[in-house]
Design a protein that fits this description.
Layout lengths: L4 E7 L3 E3 L15 E2 L16 H4 L9 E5 L11 E4 L2 E4 L3 E9 L3 E5 L5 E13 L5 E5 L2 E6 L4 E6 L13 E5 L2 E6 L2 E6 L3 E5 L2 E4 L3 E6 L4 E3 L2 E4 L3 E6 L4 E3 L9 E4 L3 E6 L4 E3 L3 E3 L3 E6 L7 E3 L9
Parallel strand pairs: 1-3, 4-7, 6-8, 7-9, 8-10, 9-11, 9-12, 10-13, 11-14, 12-15, 13-16, 14-17, 15-18, 16-19, 17-20, 18-21, 19-22, 20-23, 21-24, 22-25, 23-26, 24-27, 25-28
Antiparallel strand pairs: 1-27, 2-26, 5-6
Amino acid sequence: MKRKVVLAFLLTGALVLSGCSKTNNSNETSSGSTSTDSSAQGIDVSNMFSDRDKEIGYDEENSTVIKLSDDSTTCDSDAVQISGNTVTIIDEGTYILSGTLTDGMVIVDAEDTDKVQLVLDGVDITSAESAAIYVREADKVFITTASDSQNTLTNGGTYTAIDDNNIDAAIFSKSDLTLNGAGSLTITAKAGHGVVSKDDLVLTSGTYQIDAASHGLSGKDSVRIASGSYTIVSGKDGIHAENADDEEKGYIYIADGDFTITSDGDGMDASNIVQIEDGTLDITAGGGAANSLKTHESDMPGGP
């Protein structure tokens, strides 16, 4: 049986782990307060989060309303195409979604210069064989949970190709993706990952419960978290960032937040740097304390 170790600590400074850093392997439970070196060399954090990343408000009067329902989804905008239980958004704007699809998906397929905001206000989407939300193309997509709303996105356990992209997450994005809001979002991926962005994955607020067969949160270029509450159970890494093409990318940056992570892999794993400024972390990692926070910069081209 795999022995797990819980790493629990409250940060009082900046923690920076690069590929050359090591944590002590231990079979003991570690808890309490940990002081860290705020002068450690890390990444430039000056432009981690834009104003819009943090903005959770939206103009209801100028938003497009989509009411989800099995075989009877309704929307009065030409920017929304409905085919059975597949809803495709093709233009920039803010879209307020509510309702249930027991086997369907929402696709964003806009121009590569378009910014799209999806407001989830009591949404429950299950996709038996793909992502519940799939961003095929856009400049950037914001997924915002409406205040006090409860939302659920689920993959049913398999992924069947619908185009040339390898969709493998309950939320899968080929573009920059931001999650925020004042509500809650439960994400279940019975196969694959919870949330994937093939660019930057940014989370700035909200409450998240993520249960994934593979990684919980995954960003190719980065995973950036400003705040929020995260409970992650994952078959691989809780939070994962990896870029094999650019050694300056593939990093995890956490400004603040509350994290409870139970992972069969690493708690947080980056190919470049894991940098944590503040927050509370309770991590149970499959490989013990050494796998709670882990980097692999030495495996990258040009790494030490």
